[in-house]
């Protein structure tokens, strides 16, 4: 490669006329502004969607040289607009070619993320100093290896067995992602980046390849199932259905999620932000995990457990292994949901769109799609009860939508083929798991801890067991005897998927990359500042409002507390058994109430519409009237 253009791409015409981007009206542009965003890095909202990927895990030797390297890299980083425009052109050309990929359109994309250590090195000092205990900042600073025990990465999955990202490895400061349509283009781009790294004394700690599987397996993972189906849509980026604006146009069941769930600083509609400094706006937290897949173990256990179910008269004698495998996942290999197609895979045609229009409201006990199926453990949709034994289900809009992550995974290693060269069971293969979110704790870590690896989720009389696909060793309660039965059969599953490395990075905006390259991010990112709210405002357990010197929380014990910047307790409301949520009401009262809405504790400030809750930069927490009078405070200024 003789030169390194900012973002290499080629899009030769399919015929005499070049492929053009379909014209959009001003109304469409205004409605979907994120498609034209040139500050958010590509792959977060606009996925790279390439067949060949390489991750370069890097370490900086010298801050000044690292900043020079970043300044030279910066023009080659893809933006959301770059990727969205190319994807639109590519999709249009593909439609015109009856579903075939246009051979004369290709692009090479790059993105860059930094670990906590990498950001400190570039900034010259900690770029975040307000780090409340239990927050996404806390998880990011600790890094994935220190969080391993919380996430179930123990035993064979423990960091001491990892290939990268563990304390005994060379530290990772940055992860440079390269993605291309053609393998030869990727090799050339990687060669260029290696030269740049050597020129600036940036060392390569680990190199991870990824590629889509060949032939008919393209788009599938190594166990044989179509991957990436249940992706959320994003408000302001994806076009909503005019008839059902909570869903994406042309994809019933694909919910429109606020962009702030994936990009820091953009709107959210259900929870408090993480109180990150302004320089982190338009960035996203990235999780990278190398997950080894035991394909032969998967097949053996599916076959063995099916035989056990037949011995117990739990399934008909003519049931095939694919039936059980589909129930472990929640979908058939084509992506068709078991919920709608319980007997067989109805989609042999790979061109047909998989179905996301699912409701578990009529399968709350998991008789059709087991409660331990991967699909239900990672995205329970409307299949969660309001409370054990209570009627009704939790709505997806709000808290459940706020658990969604944007996945960008790709397989690594060759397909399992014992007869082929390099296709045996001992050949490394698996999934390179990559996801983006605005809050590591509330999204990725919550799903991993509270859903995937919690045998009691969802709450039912018989423990559901851990996620049968990606969870740790587990005994699950498998439904037997059909939809009308309440019988279950216990099955013990060994782990199929093992963690072999993990890294947390932050993927900054393009403007933040400029500031990092210039070394102009101030210590802490910003100083303490007042946080001001008007009711109604809901505060849930573990959530925090932080001003930098005061942290107001609703504790799991059922009380409000205020801690200072060093997590020293300054004030508490007192424990109130049964307190589920807190609320700052429109009438000016800060209250604790139980699941039924009964008030258990309240400030004496009701009857003041327009009042504000203020968590102050001086450490005090107060409620002030609309005319500015102080109505109540914790007296915790310091």
TrEMBL record:
InterPro entries (alphabetical): Bulb-type_lectin_dom, Bulb-type_lectin_dom_sf, Dimeric_a/b-barrel, DyP_N, Dyp_peroxidase
Record-linked SUPFAM superfamilies: alpha-D-mannose-specific plant lectins, Dimeric alpha+beta barrel
Name used for this protein in its record: Dyp-type peroxidase family
Recorded GO CC terms: cytosol
Single GO MF annotation: metal ion binding
Region (Disordered): 220-256
Keywords, comma-separated and alphabetical: Heme, Iron, Metal-binding, Oxidoreductase, Peroxidase
Domain annotation Bulb-type lectin: ranges: 530-638
This protein's record includes keyword Secreted: no
Family per record: Belongs to the DyP-type peroxidase family.
NCBIfam families the record matches: Dyp_perox_fam
Protein's organism: Streptomyces aidingensis
Keyword Transmembrane helix: no
Phylogenetic placement of the source organism: Bacteria, Bacillati, Actinomycetota, Actinomycetes, Kitasatosporales
Cofactors required: heme b
């Amino acid at each position: 490669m003789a030169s390194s253009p900012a973002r290499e791409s080629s899009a030769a015409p399919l015929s005499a006329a070049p492929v053009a981007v379909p014209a959009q009206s001003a109304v469409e542009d205004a409605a979907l502004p994120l498609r034209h965003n040139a500050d958010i890095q590509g792959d977060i909202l606009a996925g790279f969607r390439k067949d060949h990927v390489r991750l370069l895990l890097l370490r900086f030797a010298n801050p000044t040289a690292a900043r020079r390297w970043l300044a030279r890299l910066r023009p080659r980083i893809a933006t959301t607009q770059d990727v969205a425009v190319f994807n639109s052109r590519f999709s249009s050309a593909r439609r015109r070619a009856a579903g075939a990929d246009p051979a004369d359109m290709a692009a090479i994309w790059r993105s860059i993320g930094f670990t906590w250590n990498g950001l400190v090195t570039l900034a010259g000092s900690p770029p975040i100093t307000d780090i409340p205990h239990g927050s996404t900042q806390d998880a990011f600073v600790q890094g994935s290896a220190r969080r391993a025990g919380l996430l179930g990465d123990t035993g064979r999955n423990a960091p001491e067995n990892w290939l990268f990202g563990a304390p005994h490895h060379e530290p990772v400061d940055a992860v440079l992602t390269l993605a291309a349509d053609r393998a030869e283009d990727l090799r050339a781009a990687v060669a260029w980046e290696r030269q740049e790294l050597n020129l600036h004394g940036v060392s390569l700690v680990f190199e991870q390849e990824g590629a889509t599987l060949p032939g008919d397996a393209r788009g599938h993972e190594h166990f044989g199932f179509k991957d990436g189906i249940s992706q959320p849509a994003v408000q302001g980026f994806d076009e909503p259905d005019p008839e059902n604006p909570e869903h994406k146009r042309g994809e019933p069941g694909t919910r429109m999620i606020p962009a702030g769930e994936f990009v820091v600083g953009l709107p959210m509609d259900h929870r408090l932000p993480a109180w990150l400094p302004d320089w982190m706006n338009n960035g996203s937290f990235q999780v990278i995990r190398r997950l080894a897949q035991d394909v032969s173990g998967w097949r053996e256990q599916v076959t063995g457990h099916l035989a056990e179910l037949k011995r117990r008269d739990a399934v008909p004698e003519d049931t095939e292994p694919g039936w059980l495998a589909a129930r472990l996942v929640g979908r058939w290999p084509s992506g068709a949901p078991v919920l709608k197609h319980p007997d067989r895979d109805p989609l042999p045609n790979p061109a047909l769109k998989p179905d996301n229009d699912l409701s578990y409201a009529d399968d709350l006990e998991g008789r059709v799609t087991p409660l331990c199926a991967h699909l239900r453990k990672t995205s329970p949709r409307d299949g969660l009860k309001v409370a054990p034994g209570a009627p009704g289900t939790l709505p997806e809009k709000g808290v459940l939508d706020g658990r969604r992550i944007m996945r960008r995974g790709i397989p690594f290693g060759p397909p399992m083929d014992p007869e082929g060269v390099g296709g045996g069971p001992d050949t490394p293969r698996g999934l390179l798991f990559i996801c983006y979110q605005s809050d590591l704790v509330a999204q990725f870590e919550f799903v991993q801890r509270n859903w995937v690896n919690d045998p009691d989720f969802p709450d039912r009389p018989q423990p559901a067991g851990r996620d049968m696909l990606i969870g740790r060793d587990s005994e699950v309660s498998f439904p037997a005897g059909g939809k009308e039965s309440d019988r279950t059969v216990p099955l013990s599953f060994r782990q199929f998927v093992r963690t072999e490395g993990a890294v947390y990075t932050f993927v900054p905006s393009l403007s933040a990359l400029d500031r990092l390259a210039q070394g102009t991010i101030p210590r802490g990112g910003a100083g303490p500042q007042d946080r001001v709210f008007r009711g109604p405002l809901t505060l849930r357990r573990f959530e925090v409002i932080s001003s930098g010197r005061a942290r107001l929380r609703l504790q799991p014990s059922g009380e409000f507390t205020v801690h200072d910047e060093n997590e020293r307790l300054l004030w508490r409301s007192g424990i109130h058994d049964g307190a589920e949520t807190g609320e700052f009401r429109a009438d000016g009262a800060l209250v604790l109430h139980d699941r039924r809405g009964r008030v258990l504790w309240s400030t004496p400030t009701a009857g003041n519409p327009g009042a504000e809750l203020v968590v102050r930069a001086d450490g005090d927490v107060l409620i002030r009237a609309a005319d500015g009078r102080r109505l109540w405070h914790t007296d915790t200024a310091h």
